């Protein structure tokens, strides 16, 4: 359903910005597992996902819906406002008690803001490997755009640091005081976690995937853990208690060199996700 944005509603980030380029690029898919893992390392967020999410029973569907939501925040135009409202309504009923016996609500400012905030340090770190390090100006722009997305999601300015300089002390305090290896973190970083075959594409494709999934799953699970832990900022890995060796770091750097060489030369239809391609095409036509 179409949503008309009023003058009081926050606008999504502008075309041509850092997020406009980053979120639709297929390399962004490699960064999402690390961001999700850092989110659920907060005990309240982890408890909410543990008790209310379908990530165990429908992991592929859950991932697809999350990815579509993220794309809407950046490329959805007026639909970004509707997506922000939908997410707030969805989370209103999510509440419970975390592993430390503390009551939580998904829309508590500290929880809701942390879920959003984690994207910034993960993107900032992962870009060094998969694209290039951000300049100081680009880092500030990325953070400003991330704040704007937060406003679209209904996060109040008082609940998020309003500058990069304010963000890093907040982030380090969260790592020191809140973040831990929750049950959900252990599942997301396990190399032996059961995972149903993806149900993508027409029946012949999905049937083929189902047939070969027992063979594909072990290497896929190892790669998933490798890229998830590897693209977490080192201080976040340490705070959570995830092991990362020098050999793994060298392997990640080799993998990243291949990604940096291959992705930029791909045609647009392969490099960008569908919603991003359509938005980029529309932006070119409106110049």
Summarize the topology.
Elements: H1 18-22, H2 27-40, H3 43-52, H4 59-75, H5 79-91, E1 95-97, E2 103-105, H6 109-117, H7 119-130, H8 136-152, H9 164-177, H10 183-188, H11 203-230, H12 234-240, H13 246-262, H14 268-271, H15 274-285
Antiparallel strand pairs: 1-2
Question: Please, could you describe this protein's structure?
Answer:
The chain is an all-alpha fold and about 290 residues long. It has one domain. Helices cover about 65% and strands about 0% of the residues. It has 15 helices and two strands. The chain has helices at about 20, 25-40, 45-50, 60-75, 80-90, 110-115, 120-130, 135-150, 165-175, 185-190, 205-230, 235-240, 245-260, 270, 275-285, and strands spanning about 95, 105. Strands 1-2 form a two-stranded antiparallel ribbon. The longest helix is centred in the C-terminal third of the chain and has 28 residues, at about 205-230. It is globular, with a radius of gyration of 19 Å. The mean pLDDT is about 90.
Percent in strands: under 5%
What spatial form do the alpha-carbon principal axes imply? globular
Radius of gyration: 19 Å
Helix % is 55-70%
Cα separation of the termini? 27 Å
Number of strands: 2
Given the helix and strand composition, which structural class is it?
mainly alpha
The order of strands across the largest sheet is: 1-2
How many helical elements? 15
Total separate domains: 1
The H/E string reads: HHHHHEEHHHHHHHHHH
The whole-number mean of residue pLDDT values reads 92
Which regions contain 5 or more consecutive residues with pLDDT less than 50? none
The largest pleated sheet is described as:
2 strands, antiparallel
